[in-house]
Amino acid sequence: MLTKRTDSAFWRDNVDPASIPERLQKLLRLWKYQSPGFFDEFDRLDEVFPNASYQYILYGMGFRTEVEPFNTVAAQALASRFLGEAEVLTQRIEPCRPVVLRGLVADWPVVEAGARSPAAFRDYVSRFDTGAPMEAFVGAPQIAGKYYYSDDLAGFNFEHRRMSLSQALDAMVGSLGQDGALSLYLGSVPTDDRLPGFSSQNPMPLLGWTTGQRIWLGHASNVSSHYETLDNLACVVAGARRFTLYPPELIGELYVGPIDNTMAGQPVSLAASSPPDDARFPRFAGVRDQALITELHAGDALYLPKLWWHQVEATAPFNGSVNYWWDAFAAGPDSPYTSLLLSMIAVSERPLEARRAWKALFEHYVFRENGHPVSHLPPERRGLLGPLAPANYGRIRARVMQLLRGN
Ligand SMILES: O=C(O)CCC(=O)C(=O)O
């Protein structure tokens, strides 16, 4: 799309605005006035390139970013409004506890369509279908929408089937009320790529417009208790959802399944997914009733901090939800999960005493519950342990890359 070549149909198609996904179009509009940075694109789960790669390509292809002095009265008013909204959200989420926001998206057109009927919801959402196939979960009636492992934990109790958004919605709405119907679930569909135009009609006031939006549609379902490493704002747009939550510190009592053979990418709590009093999970019995349970109806939203365990039950015959994942409080593009994985190979199988020694260093330098590790040094002598911005983040990151390359 940045190319100047017009010598073949391939290149001509590439510059056709209709071939550019809506999300990328939005980013290109943003990048006209501001260089790519990790806060606009690089918090995405599936993003592998750092912002520098985008900058090399954009500017290497002759793209121009106009940097204007930011000093007009209108711009300042807009900036303080955005900062004010972001501050309100930050204050509400800073304690890292779930927050229910009743009616947050009650005026979205998709919520209004769902309030009319499932068929009206289908007609509204199908308008955005590009026809691209997506992966739906399809389950036999006996599983009652609980998409889960097979008994031996090797496979699953449901199938994946590829279908377009409209095909999935037609099948969901068409089988409502039919005895013995298959249950269908279409989860985590990025709307900017797959339903272009949907996010502009149903915008989230509390988050920057570049935070990706996803849609989840289906019959009654039960998604087993799991966590994500990102913050989540989940908004119910049709039907109802019940969230059963456990805080991150209960991980040891939850009997977590494999981290690499999972239903939808995240490990699940085997204990929280089992009937009460399952004798295989005695430690869970002691914490089961510590769950926080909340029921959301169309128009309501839940802020769910990262690492909180959540089982999500869609409880109406037909349900829809929209969510956003982002990393609140990130100091840069790196996720703590990267350091967790690295620590697993570097630390986990050392002898207990060696692990304890490293634990002391991690607590001192990383977790810092007893204060900053070099608060006794004058600021100009703190070196890499001084504030991360503006330069120490990049310096430490460069050192990590060097060490991983083996030099
Ligand atoms: O809403 C759902 O059906 C599942 C959502 C979910 O698993 C999540 O947001 O992590």
Topology of helices and strands:
Layout (H helix, E strand, L loop, with lengths): L8 H7 L6 H10 L19 H10 L12 H21 L5 E3 L7 H8 L1 H9 L7 E6 L6 E2 L11 E5 L1 H10 L8 E8 H4 L3 H4 L11 E6 L2 E6 L4 E8 L1 E7 L35 H4 L6 E6 L3 E4 L4 E6 L4 E8 L9 H11 L5 H16 L20 H18 L2
Parallel strand pairs: 3-7
Antiparallel strand pairs: 1-11, 2-4, 2-5, 5-6, 6-13, 7-12, 8-11, 8-13, 9-10, 9-12
The structure holds 2-oxoglutaric acid.
Plain-language structure description:
The protein has helices at 9-15, 22-31, 51-60, 73-93, 109-116, 118-126, 165-174, 191-194, 198-201, 282-285, 336-346, 352-367, 388-405, and strands spanning 99-101, 134-139, 146-147, 159-163, 183-190, 213-218, 221-226, 231-238, 240-246, 292-297, 301-304, 309-314, 319-326. It is of the alpha+beta class and 407 residues long. The chain folds into three domains: 9-60, no CATH class; 95-326, Jelly Rolls; 336-405, no CATH class. The chain has an eight-stranded antiparallel β-sheet with strand order 1-11-8-13-6-5-2-4. The two termini are 39 Å apart. The structure holds 2-oxoglutaric acid. 2-oxoglutaric acid binds next to β7, β8, β12 and β13.
